[in-house]
Amino acid sequence: MSLNALYNSLKRRLESGEWLAGQRMPSIRKLASTSEASYHDAVSAYARLVSEGLLSASPGRGYFVTSGASQAVSPREPECMSADPLFRLLQAGPQYTKLGGGWLPPAWRDTELLAKAIRRTARLEQSSLAEYGDISGYMPMRKQLCVHMKRLTRIDIRPSQVLSTLGATQGLDLVARLLIKPGDHVFVDEPGNGNLIRLIQLAGGHVVGVRRTQDGPDIAEMESYLAKHTVKAFFCNSTFHNPTGSNISPHNAFKVLRLAVEHEFFVVEDDVYGDFSPTVRQTFAELDNLDRVIYIGSFSKCLSASLRVGYIACSQELIEPLTRLKLLTCVAVPAFCERFVNTILADGTYARHMQNVQQRLISQQVQTQRSLLARGWKFDIAPQGGMFIWAYHPDITDLQPFMTKLEQHKVLLMPGSAFSVTRDYQRFARINCTHFSEAVESHFSV
C-alpha cells in the first residue's frame, strides 16, 4: 500500500469512530505488516495524522487517538458563513463549476510556462526563499511595474511611487485605513465589489452606492449627493468593471475627476481586471497623473490566486504613510513571489501569457453572450470584455430558487445582492464567461 493510500485509509477510519479517543493505535511495525506498507510509509502516515491533530505521539509508548478525531467527522461551517455566497464559492470542491467566481479556471493558465519561470527564479534568487524582503517591494520589480504601467496605461511614474501589496485586497484595505475615518462618506460603484463594501464599513465609512451606467458612474447622482454631503473618496473599477464588464469612457472619467478636484475627494482606481484588455485602456490615473487618484493593480487574477502580489501607485505624499501602515499590518513580504513577478515582466513571459488569455477571453465572452441571449437572458449593461456578464431573465423575479436548482447540478452562481450596498439587484447574477460551457448552458433555459 502506498503512503497516500495508507494515510487516507487511517484518516477515514479515525473519522468514522473505529478507534475511540485515548485508544492506542497499532505499533508502526504492526501497521506496516497488516497494511503491506513500508516501515517508512507507516511512520510518515502517523506523522501526518499527528500534524492534523488526529493522533498524539507519546515517546516510548506509541500513538494515541485524540478527541479531535471524532470531531472531524462532519465539520459544520457557522450558519452565517455557509449562507454567504462568496464563502460557498471559495470552499466548494473541484466537482463544482464556479460560474459566479471572480477568477480564471486553472485550465486557462499556461502552467508549464509559469512553472519554467518559477524554476528560473528559484535558481537565480535562492536567497529570497529565506528573506523578509523590502517592505516597499522588490526594487527591480517596482522598476518593471513602472515600465508595465507606461506601456499599458500611459502612466509615467517613478519606482518610489509604487508600493507592493499582498494582492489588490490588501491594497484596498491599506488605502481605506489611511483615508477613511469613522463617519466619512465614501462613494462606491453600484453594483460593485461586495468585499470592498465590507472593507470600507470595517474602517467606519458610510458607504454610498453610485449607479453604474454603460460608460461609467452616474454623474448626475454624484453631483446631487455632493451638493449636500462631503465625500472622502470614490472607489471604482475603470476597466472591465466587476460585475458588469463595462469600461469607463474618457468623457465620463474627465467629469468624475472634475468633481474630485472641485469637492476635494480621492479617486481610488481598482484596476485588477485591466490587464485582460488587449488594447491601451482609459484610466483615471492617466488623466490625473496620480494627483487625486490612487491606482491599485494585481497579478493574482491573471496568474494565480495563491500568488499574492499587487501594488499601489500614487503620489509621493501618500506613498509614505501607506508604507508605514503596511509595515504595521504586514512585517514580512513575499520576497520570492515579487522576484518571480519581476522575472516574468522582464523576460516577456507575462506578456505572452496575457496575449493568449486576452484572445481566448474575446471569443469566450462573445460565445457566452450569444448563448444567454438565445435563452432569453438580458443585460442592462452590455459587457465590453473581460470575464463578467451582469444578467437577468425576465421570467425570474427572485434568483434564489434558480441558484438552488443550479447547485443541484454542481453549478454555483453569485447573486446580484452580493454586489449592492442596499442588497438590491435580487434578479441579477454575475456570470463568469470563462467557466461557461455546453454542459452549463443547458441549465440556463427557463
TrEMBL record:
Pfam families given for it? Aminotran_1_2 (PF00155), GntR (PF00392)
Domain HTH gntR-type, chain residue ranges per copy:
1-68
Keywords from UniProt, A to Z, are: Aminotransferase, DNA-binding, Pyridoxal phosphate, Transcription, Transcription regulation, Transferase
Question: So what family is this one in?
Answer: In the C-terminal section; belongs to the class-I pyridoxal-phosphate-dependent aminotransferase family.
Species annotation: Pseudomonas syringae USA007
Xref: Gene3D superfamilies: Aspartate Aminotransferase, domain 1, Type I PLP-dependent aspartate aminotransferase-like (Major domain), Winged helix-like DNA-binding domain superfamily/Winged helix DNA-binding domain
What are the top taxonomic ranks of the organism? Answer: Bacteria, Pseudomonadati, Pseudomonadota, Gammaproteobacteria, Pseudomonadales
Q: Does the keyword DNA-binding apply?
A: yes
- Does Repeat count among this protein's keywords? no
State what protein this is by name: PLP-dependent aminotransferase family protein
